[in-house]
Design brief:
Length: 115
């Protein structure tokens, strides 16, 4: 099974999730999503695999989220996805994709649940 980890090496939770996988001898494909942001189609696929809304996949406590007005309930799913494409820092991390399943690694131990 292919494992893909959307990872931010500056994030302690993301580093912990990667460490948990590596401790189990797993080597996921690591996507440094701030350097190589997912496009709209990729984000829609990830949202579907996670079984969440775009808002649930976002860092809603981030100041950028608020300053862009994304905290308004009137903001559409498409607008939220477009915001993540333009500002990938808004994507909650880490996200592990294992085959046709995905999980947000908050807390990091959640990544182990889909293995």
């Amino acid at each position: 099974m292919t494992l893909t980890l959307y990872h931010n090496p500056r994030c302690s939770k993301s580093r912990q999730a990667l460490g948990l996988l590596q401790q189990r001898g797993l080597s996921p494909d690591v996507v440094l999503y701030l350097e190589s942001p997912p496009d709209t189609a990729a984000l829609k696929r990830i949202i579907k695999l996670l079984g969440v809304t775009a808002r649930e996949m976002m860092r809603t406590k981030d100041e950028l989220f608020k300053s862009l007005g994304l905290d308004s309930p009137k903001v559409t799913e498409a607008e939220l996805i477009a915001a993540m494409v333009s500002h990938p820092i808004l994507i909650e991390r880490p996200i592990l994709i294992a085959g046709q399943r995905a999980v947000i690694g908050r807390p990091p131990e959640r990544v182990l649940k889909i293995l």
